[in-house]
């Protein structure tokens, strides 16, 4: 069987896709969001659930998205419609693509604000504005940076313009080139910071906090947050990975690629945790300080390190680049769609979307100053964007993707694309058909408080085990000679 449409843009090198997908997934989610959420939800228990979600939901869903993208060769809307029609199913499944595009746009609207923090800290670092002798002092700097809408707006606007400029030019060249040096650089920076933390921070306390599993701390909300974050950090269900998959050359292994991306992403998140929490405990800071966590804690550590000033500047530079390579991927789906299906040039599409993005992100930015009181049900606009996408749109998108791949499409369709050995394929299929949908629905029910406390999990485990057995047997029986 051949692919349905012929690809126009493909990644250049053998590593092109891995680099770009890693660039998309490694970002503020790993270095800013993961630590502060871990802090808010009490540490090890959250980390554990997050890791389980990466393996059991994130990896299979990512494989599916890449396979859908490559088979449909297009933006999420077009690719999903083609793949569904090819299996003789309704083109309405492309609604999943619409949802993904909306989700990517909403995420980007608050992401550019956080990326703006990173750029402003890069600037402060260069101009010597990041000096304070206590956590409170650093918190004051963070607060002052947010308080002036013109200042904060300047930085988020800068990020918006940079993102659109790169996407307008076409992602391949720009991304492949920047990620190639940025990823190793980021890892080196994190290693330097971990070494510092080992010698000068409360390293034991940090490790304990990150990895001590205390099931008592697990609430339905924490589990939903961990699952949502697994989607967020891998850039799933928002068009990014699917669109990048559309540019993946035919011969490359989707399974291996996915593993590489997921492992890099997880390692960077855990390294960020190891770099940050020792500093937090050594300085008596509250790990549950929220979104400002890394901006208040790390500069304090940099000040005390030998060559700290230089390291600080390089760190915020890396953070900025990591944020940009992610931001680009969030809007690529929309730009690709306007370009392919509506004949707009990439540049026009990028600037058009950019204007809309600028308006929405400016509203999000105002949540930190002028609009501090504009709350709905206790949340700012900024918080709403994050909450709706991570807790609802992404898990639901993942559920839809799993159902589409597991039950709606013809079996051969993605089987050919994935090209896995039969036992592994059976495992993937089982996960996509049962584990992902059941897990996502259960987590929702649990977060809504609809699950009984004495729900007997053994039943569920048994049913799932039987389903797995059936899948494996079926795979054996239907194996082609
Ligand atoms: N994964 C990125 C991060 O961890 C964020 C991101 C990039 C993203 N593209 C996305 C999140 C698409 C959701 C959807 O920072």
Automatic annotation (TrEMBL):
<feature type="transmembrane region" description="Helical">
    <location>
        <begin position="12"/>
        <end position="32"/>
    </location>
</feature>
<dbReference type="InterPro" id="IPR000175">
    <property type="entry name" value="Na/ntran_symport"/>
</dbReference>
<feature type="transmembrane region" description="Helical">
    <location>
        <begin position="152"/>
        <end position="175"/>
    </location>
</feature>
<dbReference type="Pfam" id="PF00209">
    <property type="entry name" value="SNF"/>
</dbReference>
<keyword id="KW-1133">Transmembrane helix</keyword>
<feature type="transmembrane region" description="Helical">
    <location>
        <begin position="90"/>
        <end position="123"/>
    </location>
</feature>
<comment type="similarity">
    <text>Belongs to the sodium:neurotransmitter symporter (SNF) (TC 2.A.22) family.</text>
</comment>
<keyword id="KW-0812">Transmembrane</keyword>
<dbReference type="GO" id="GO:0015293">
    <property type="term" value="F:symporter activity"/>
</dbReference>
<protein>
    <recommendedName>
        <fullName>Transporter</fullName>
    </recommendedName>
</protein>
<feature type="transmembrane region" description="Helical">
    <location>
        <begin position="350"/>
        <end position="372"/>
    </location>
</feature>
<keyword id="KW-0813">Transport</keyword>
<feature type="transmembrane region" description="Helical">
    <location>
        <begin position="187"/>
        <end position="211"/>
    </location>
</feature>
<dbReference type="InterPro" id="IPR047218">
    <property type="entry name" value="YocR/YhdH-like"/>
</dbReference>
<keyword id="KW-0769">Symport</keyword>
<feature type="transmembrane region" description="Helical">
    <location>
        <begin position="314"/>
        <end position="338"/>
    </location>
</feature>
<dbReference type="GO" id="GO:0016020">
    <property type="term" value="C:membrane"/>
</dbReference>
<keyword id="KW-0472">Membrane</keyword>
<feature type="transmembrane region" description="Helical">
    <location>
        <begin position="223"/>
        <end position="247"/>
    </location>
</feature>
<feature type="transmembrane region" description="Helical">
    <location>
        <begin position="259"/>
        <end position="281"/>
    </location>
</feature>
<feature type="transmembrane region" description="Helical">
    <location>
        <begin position="430"/>
        <end position="451"/>
    </location>
</feature>
<feature type="transmembrane region" description="Helical">
    <location>
        <begin position="392"/>
        <end position="409"/>
    </location>
</feature>
<dbReference type="InterPro" id="IPR037272">
    <property type="entry name" value="SNS_sf"/>
</dbReference>
<feature type="transmembrane region" description="Helical">
    <location>
        <begin position="457"/>
        <end position="477"/>
    </location>
</feature>
<feature type="transmembrane region" description="Helical">
    <location>
        <begin position="44"/>
        <end position="69"/>
    </location>
</feature>
